[in-house]
């Protein structure tokens, strides 16, 4: 089967097909007609409209676009909510991690604790 196909392709490559003189005359006549038409019609010049970008869009693009700002904003709102409300379930999770009762964690110590000489 493959030998038959190889022979067929080899014979097809050996014969060079030339277009007829009539075909070439018709193609060249169509090309000349199109050139005449295109010379009569004025070319359309596309004018690029400059779109002004506001400062907020520039700031959003600086941080990776509006999608990334939405994600960061959502995480910030969730963090503020959990920080101020402190749901009851959150305290039990902290108790499991610390293996003791954690009532209040002081993230930023007072100035007195920093100045104390211990």
TrEMBL record:
Organism: Cypionkella aquatica
Keywords: Membrane, Transmembrane, Transmembrane helix
Organism domain of life: Bacteria
Spans traversing the lipid bilayer: 59-85
Source organism phylogeny: Bacteria, Pseudomonadati, Pseudomonadota, Alphaproteobacteria, Rhodobacterales
Keyword Transmembrane helix annotated: yes
Name recorded for this polypeptide: Dihydroorotate dehydrogenase
Keyword Transmembrane set for record: yes
């Amino acid at each position: 089967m493959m030998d038959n196909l190889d022979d067929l392709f080899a014979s097809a490559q050996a014969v060079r097909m030339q277009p007829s003189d009539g075909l070439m005359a018709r193609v060249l006549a169509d090309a000349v007609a199109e050139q005449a038409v295109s010379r009569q019609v004025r070319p359309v010049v596309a004018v690029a409209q400059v779109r002004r970008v506001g400062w907020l869009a520039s700031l959003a693009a600086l941080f990776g676009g509006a999608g990334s700002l939405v994600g960061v904003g959502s995480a910030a709102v969730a963090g503020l909510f959990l920080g101020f409300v402190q749901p009851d379930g959150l305290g039990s999770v902290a108790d499991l991690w610390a293996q003791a009762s954690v009532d209040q964690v002081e993230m930023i110590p007072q100035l007195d604790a920093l100045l104390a000489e211990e």
